[in-house]
C-alpha cells in the first residue's frame, strides 16, 4: 500500500512536483499560502489540509518546498507547525534550498520524537519539475533515502544520496555556484558578440557544437535571445542561493571570488526591482553598462 504524502509549498517548483505525485496515484495532502494553487490541485485529486500540523497528522511522509530557511523553520516549529502533529515513524523531506545548519537543527529536533529527515534540494527549474526530470541530491540516512526513493523517482531522473544530514544542501550550493558562473560566461559571450553585431542565435548554434555547449547555454541562452525573462527560477531566489553558498564557504574558510562578484551583481538587479524575473535577466546589467 502506498504511503500517504503531505506536500507544503505550491509555488513555481512545488505545484508541478505535487501534481506529479497525485498523477502517480499517491494520496496527497497539500498546504500552501497560495489558495489558487491548492484549489487547482484539489481538482486533480489532492486533498487540502488546514495547517502544517494537520499535514503531519494525516501523512506518512511530509515534503516541503519553500523559499528559504525562515519559512521552513516556521512550518516545522511555528504555531500549528509540523512538530505538533508528527509522531514516531514518519519521514520529513525538505526539498527547499536552505542552509545546511537549519537542516541539521530540524533533524535533531525531529529525531528526538522518532522522525527521520532528509534534505533533498533539487536542480532543473520549473521545466524539470513539470517533466519529473529533476536532479535530486539528498542528505540523511540511507534508510530514509531508500524509503523516499519511490517518490524521488517520480519527481526526478538523476537521484543521488550525497551523505549525512546537510550534505544535500552543500551539494546544491555547489550546483548553484557552477550554474551561476556558467550563466555569467554565456552572458559575457553574448555581450561581446552583440557589440560586434553578431546574431546571437547563430552564435548559440556555433557554441553548441563545441566545448562551450551546456544546458545553461541551451536554456538560459535561449531565454536571453528571445528576451523571455518570465521566471523559470527567480533572480531573487538565486540571489538567496548564492548567499547560502557564500555562508557555507565562509564557515569552511573557502574563498569564492567569482561567486562573490556574481552575488553582488544579482543583488544590484534585485534592488532595481528585477528580482521576480528569471535569473538569466542578469544580462540586463551588462547591457546597461
TrEMBL record:
Highest taxon, organism lineage: Bacteria
Coiled coil: none
A single BP term in Gene Ontology: organic acid catabolic process
Domain 3-hydroxyisobutyrate dehydrogenase-like NAD-binding: 166-285
Keyword annotations from UniProtKB, A to Z: NAD, Oxidoreductase
Keyword rRNA processing: no
SUPFAM superfamilies: 6-phosphogluconate dehydrogenase C-terminal domain-like, NAD(P)-binding Rossmann-fold domains
Gene Ontology terms, MF aspect: NAD binding; NADP binding; oxidoreductase activity
Active site: 172
Family matches, as InterPro entries: 3-OH-isobutyrate_DH-rel_CS (IPR002204), 6-PGluconate_DH-like_C_sf (IPR008927), 6PGD_dom2 (IPR013328), 6PGDH_NADP-bd (IPR006115), HIBADH-like_NADP-bd (IPR029154), HIBADH-related (IPR015815), NAD(P)-bd_dom_sf (IPR036291)
Positions of the 6-phosphogluconate dehydrogenase NADP-binding domain: 4-163
Family indicated by similarity: Belongs to the HIBADH-related family.
Family matches, as PANTHER family: 3-HYDROXYISOBUTYRATE DEHYDROGENASE-LIKE 1, MITOCHONDRIAL-RELATED (PTHR43060)
Name of the protein in question: 2-hydroxy-3-oxopropionate reductase
Species in which this protein is naturally found: Parafilimonas terrae
Native organism taxonomy: Bacteria, Pseudomonadati, Bacteroidota, Chitinophagia, Chitinophagales
Amino acid at each position: 500500500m502506498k504511503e500517504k504524502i503531505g506536500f507544503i509549498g505550491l509555488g513555481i517548483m512545488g505545484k508541478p512536483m505535487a501534481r506529479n505525485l497525485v498523477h502517480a496515484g499517491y494520496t496527497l495532502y497539500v498546504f500552501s499560502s497560495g489558495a489558487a494553487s491548492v484549489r487547482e490541485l484539489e481538482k486533480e485529486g489532492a486533498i487540502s489540509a488546514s495547517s502544517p500540523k494537520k499535514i503531519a497528522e494525516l501523512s506518512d511522509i511530509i515534503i516541503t518546498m519553500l523559499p528559504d530557511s525562515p519559512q521552513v523553520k516556521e512550518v516545522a516549529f511555528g504555531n500549528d507547525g509540523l512538530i505538533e502533529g508528527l509522531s514516531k515513524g514518519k519521514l520529513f523531506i525538505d526539498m527547499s534550498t536552505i542552509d545546511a545548519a537549519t537542516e541539521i537543527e530540524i533533524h535533531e529536533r525531529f529525531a528526538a520524537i522518532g522522525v527521520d529527515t532528509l534534505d533533498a534540494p533539487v536542480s532543473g527549474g520549473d521545466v524539470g519539475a513539470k517533466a519529473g526530470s529533476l536532479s535530486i541530491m539528498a542528505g540523511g540516512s540511507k534508510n530514509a533515502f531508500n524509503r523516499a526513493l519511490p517518490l524521488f523517482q517520480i519527481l526526478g531522473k538523476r537521484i543521488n544520496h550525497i551523505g549525512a544530514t546537510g550534505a544535500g544542501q552543500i551539494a546544491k550550493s555547489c550546483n548553484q555556484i557552477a550554474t551561476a558562473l556558467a550563466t555569467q560566461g554565456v552572458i559575457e559571450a553574448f555581450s561581446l558578440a552583440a557589440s560586434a553585431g553578431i546574431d546571437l542565435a547563430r552564435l548559440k548554434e556555433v557554441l553548441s557544437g563545441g566545448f562551450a555547449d551546456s544546458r545553461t547555454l541551451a536554456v538560459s541562452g535561449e531565454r536571453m535571445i528571445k528576451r523571455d525573462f518570465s521566471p523559470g527560477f527567480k533572480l531573487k531566489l538565486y540571489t538567496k542561493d548564492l548567499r547560502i553558498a557564500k555562508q557555507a564557504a565562509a564557515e569552511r574558510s573557502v574563498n569564492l571570488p567569482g561567486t562573490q562578484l556574481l552575488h553582488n551583481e544579482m543583488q544590484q538587479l534585485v534592488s532595481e526591482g528585477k528580482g521576480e524575473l528569471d535569473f538569466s535577466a542578469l544580462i540586463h546589467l551588462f547591457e546597461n553598462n
